[in-house]
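Please predict the structure of the following assembly.
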Amino acid sequence: MMKIVVVIKQVPARDSFLRVDPGGAWIQESDLNYEINEPDAYALEAGLQLKEKSGGEVVVVSTGPARVASTIREALAKGADRAIHIEQEDVAGAGPLATARVIASALETEKPDLILTGLQSDDFGYGQTGVILAELMGLPHATIIMNVEVNGASLRLKRELENGYFQHVEMPLPALLTMQSGSNKLRYATLMGIKKAKTKEVRTIAGVQPEGAGTSIRIERVYMPGSSKQSQIFDGPPREAAAKLVEKLKFEARVL
Amino acid sequence: MSILVVTEQRGGAWNRMSFETLAAAQQFEKPVHAAVIGTGIETLAQELAGYQLEAVHAVSHPLLEHYTADGYSLALRQLIEKVSPELVLFPHTYQVRDFAPKLATSLNRVLVSDVVARHGDVFVRQLFQGKINADIRFTGEPPFFASLQAGAWRADQTVAGSAPVVPFTPELKPEQIRVKPLDIFREAERAVDLGAAEIIVSVGRGIKEADNLPVVQKLAEVLGAEMAASRPICDNGWMPMERQVGSSGQTVAPKMYIAVGISGAIQHLVGMKGSRTIVAINRDPEAPIFEVADYGIVGDLFEVVPALIEEIRKVK
């Protein structure tokens, strides 16, 4: 029987049209739609599959403002048993160390056997929160995991390396893993699951920054990136755009 | 500001991104120290000694023979205490992603990961899969930690010179290494060498369904091009893994790369941005792929690609 904690994040939907605040402090969040960070959805799936195989409990943890509740409900509808919502307004300015500290303190009493999370977030993309959390909790970790096998008190993992290589690693439990996208088929919530989710426990706690958070980093300004190349972009009717492109490819780039 | 560059090797072979980081450090500030970690690294350390550096630190210990996050962060922490650099730079590799955040945390610092540029004290990194840039400043006391994106600095701009090799043996105990690394392997031999292709037509999420692939395959046929894909397409099993372009697949630099329905996440861009001519077809005008494209069409690929095929037939 394992207690599995899955740390998930709510992020702007993948196809969001992003606009920067006039002051460049942050993006305009008012008209955005949100969804679960994709690698975290795979972490949740891996957690649910492990529970189905060997029994136990899946606890979902997420930090963020009130809107995060919808993503938590969805995870519960898919089969997580209960959830902890660490309520925090300024997730943007927090940075990965501060975020991991808040999560670590919320998990102090939970004592999970296994913590799973996505390898990175689609919004900030630091790719660090999981590894930092492991260090703060004194746990061994492994990153970019494709496959998890539990053998008693230890794990056998398939890690992704670069250039099409993989590596097997073994490690003891308790441990933290960051999961790669695409290694499983994601499940949908069933009607029964959605109904059940309404009765499941969601504990909301205030995200308090522990004292002595130490040095960190500060986002000074955000902006739309300038193009690194002189791009020639055509739009309008497809036929006209295609004709213009082919002319350029033949006479300017000379690749046809 | 003194800099320590942490290079990367496996089994005596460099990860070439190490030299991009070395070149960046040499442009940033002096003095620059470099570290190479592992066992049997004398030859690699000697090679580094041929660059303009303050010193090359050859960090060796039997427990560092194979990479582990525990071993590397404990060893580097001791080296950092000895050298006292103000800035520690890494290439932003999968391995660095595995241990550098742990190392920085153990010193109560935050790593600025995947940096694409530096202006004065400001480091630039990308947010939202490359749609937004952020200027980031370190606060508090050094050492500061940053990892540099593949291709953001050029390896051929390193400056030659000579530097002493300083051996460094960290204190490590077997029980401190909790993860046991096993075999490194590939799933299947690569039958397709995308690196040799002159033209590549690559397809991404915009294709929506496997049944739609023939639309793009036809374009590849007309051009005599190899087909490739972004990660989600291969994850779904719509195209074989060996045709995946990006950090976890192949790195390509053909004469022409046509990205169809690919938004251009960083992981994809690092695998193709060296292509001579890049063409992007995407319905989202804000898609990051247009930032690296020489030519682009904003529109629905299901309308644009057939029109393009027709126009190419006219001129071929």
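The longest strand of chain A covers residues 141-151. Helices of chain A lie at 38-54, 68-78, 91-107, 129-137, 191-197, 238-251.
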